[in-house]
Design brief:
Elements lengths: L22 H13 L11 H16 L14 H18 L15 H15 L5 H7 L12 H11 L4 E4 L6 E5 L2
Antiparallel strand pairs: 1-2
Helix pairs in contact: 1-3, 2-3, 4-6
């Protein structure tokens, strides 16, 4: 029997995050829906307000003299922490104008951070193969911007001196593609 083709390379692998882990967070979100309104969170809120809420719940959870359950919702404080963290992420991505944290320095993008990490690794690396040297010899090109997260992890592994295995098509064994 021939299996259907799937083109999932570079797509999120939801199997790595089982949905049952979200149940306590969903219960907090449902409590919030009943208290405020359906989809109220989509409006966003100042980041510091959400961060204050997150920290209050974290403090209650850490305090040995407090219950693990929120007195109003009767849900675990850590579920509230997780909800607030997700809400902050949503607000930062969809309502950046509501980010009221004090940030005196301009923020770097994820690509800039990854590029800095790769440059630092390449500067600290003592032995690179000639093919790696050729790849890194073109810093003026935006080749890193076009890399998938999987390609970025592979390059980081190479720069860290790890082994990258490639299946040998003639045998069932894997042989090192690059080794340092």
């Amino acid at each position: 029997m021939e299996l259907a083709k799937r083109f999932n390379k570079g797509k999120l692998r939801w199997r790595n995050f089982p949905m049952f882990l979200f149940k306590p967070v969903i219960e907090v979100a449902q409590f919030g829906e009943e208290k405020y309104d359906t989809f109220n969170f989509l409006k966003g809120a100042p980041t510091l307000d959400s961060l204050d809420s997150l920290k209050r719940h974290l403090e209650k959870f850490e305090n040995p003299f407090e219950s693990d359950l929120d007195e109003e919702s009767l849900k675990n404080h850590m579920a509230h922490v997780a909800w607030n963290a997700l809400f902050i992420l949503y607000t930062l991505e969809n309502h950046p104008e509501l980010d009221d944290r004090y940030k005196p320095c301009p923020q770097k993008t994820e690509t800039e951070v990854n590029l800095n990490i790769l440059e630092e690794k390449s500067n600290n690396s003592k032995s690179l193969s000639s093919s790696s040297d050729e790849i890194l010899a073109e810093p003026k090109k935006n080749w890193i911007n076009d890399m998938t997260p999987e390609q970025m992890r592979t390059l980081q592994l190479i720069l860290e001196g790890g082994k990258l295995l490639m299946p040998n098509p003639t045998t069932a064994l894997s042989t090192p593609l690059l080794s340092f």
